[in-house]
């Protein structure tokens, strides 16, 4: 790179330049997506041992006008880097709370929870608790049915600050789940101090059940830990009966995965609810 003055770096490596161009394109398309209403939420059912629907996880989808459906794994990292995750995340929260409000009016869906993924950058905003409060008030959603999913890396960035903020949000009546649990490095002493309602066993462990001894051990440990700390334990990525039976034998009571349903648009969820 050669400095061309005025703080601009010019790259002459064509491959690197191409990558930067793609990134710039994606970034401007992401900005466009928000204005152009190209985002959707899909909802993946979470069921109890009787396979009754007890909650859903809201998962972001980008319906790109040319490229079709773009996976969140392909745009959330850039959205985080650029800060676009802030307006996007707020839209997700608002949309999820509108669904909750809508569900409150129907006897079949009244108690069903909605879980929302929260990115680190979003959670670190000084006014995040106030944002959550405002969205709850504006939508009229029951706070007890909203669950925020945090990751271990987010929590560990600044444990003291995280705990304080979690308590402020819990005071609104909202619940917390620790997503992808077991993949990070949270120590047991931290875990016990966090006001968590749920631990979510990561699908990378569930995938190899039953059979892979190490993953069986980790799964068993997480379930025992959750029971000891009075936290609900949910397994994600459950794809087979054998996985489900094994998890149930270990004492896991809540499941999410393709075995029950893929993430569905809100309209298609009605069919799942009618059948559950
Ligand atoms: P995650 O929070 O761990 O979500 C679970 C992912 O596993 C989802 O992928 C879901 O579709 C997929 N999945 C569910 N059941 C199964 C199964 O049985 N087998 C397999 N192989 N996969 C299953 P998805 O929707 O592509 O989302 C990927 C990631 O993007 C999420 O991982 C989450 O980290 C992020 N994400 C999605 N929506 C949002 C959002 O609204 N905000 C933020 N900050 N992140 C989001
Ligand atoms: Ca999640
Ligand atoms: Ca997860
Ligand atoms: Ca995951």
UniProtKB/TrEMBL annotation:
<feature type="domain" description="EAL">
    <location>
        <begin position="23"/>
        <end position="276"/>
    </location>
</feature>
<protein>
    <submittedName>
        <fullName>PAS domain S-box protein</fullName>
    </submittedName>
</protein>
């Amino acid at each position: 790179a050669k400095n061309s003055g005025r703080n601009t770096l010019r790259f002459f490596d064509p491959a690197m330049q191409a990558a930067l161009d793609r990134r710039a394109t994606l970034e401007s398309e992401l900005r466009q997506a928000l204005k152009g209403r190209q985002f959707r939420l899909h909802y993946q059912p979470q069921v109890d041992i009787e396979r009754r629907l007890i909650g859903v996880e809201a998962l972001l989808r980008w319906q790109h006008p040319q490229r079709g459906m773009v996976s969140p794994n392909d745009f959330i990292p850039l959205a985080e880097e650029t800060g676009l995750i802030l307006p996007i995340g707020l839209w997700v929260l608002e949309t999820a709370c509108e669904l909750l409000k809508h569900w409150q009016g129907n006897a079949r869906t009244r108690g069903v929870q909605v879980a929302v993924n929260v990115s680190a950058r979003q959670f670190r905003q000084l006014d995040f608790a106030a944002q959550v409060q405002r969205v709850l008030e504006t939508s009229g959603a029951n706070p007890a049915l909203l669950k925020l999913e945090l990751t271990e890396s987010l929590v560990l960035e600044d444990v003291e600050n995280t705990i304080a903020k979690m308590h402020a949000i819990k005071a609104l009546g909202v619940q917390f789940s620790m997503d992808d649990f077991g993949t990070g490095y949270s120590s047991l002493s931290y875990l016990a101090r966090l006001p968590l309602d749920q631990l979510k066993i990561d699908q990378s462990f569930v995938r190899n059940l039953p059979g892979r001894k190490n993953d069986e051990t980790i799964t068993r440990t997480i379930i025992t830990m959750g029971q000891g700390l009075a936290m609900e334990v949910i397994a994600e990525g459950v794809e087979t009966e054998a996985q489900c039976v094994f998890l149930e034998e270990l004492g896991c009571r809540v499941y999410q995965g393709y075995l029950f349903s893929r993430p569905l648009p809100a309209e298609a969820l009605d069919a799942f609810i009618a059948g559950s």
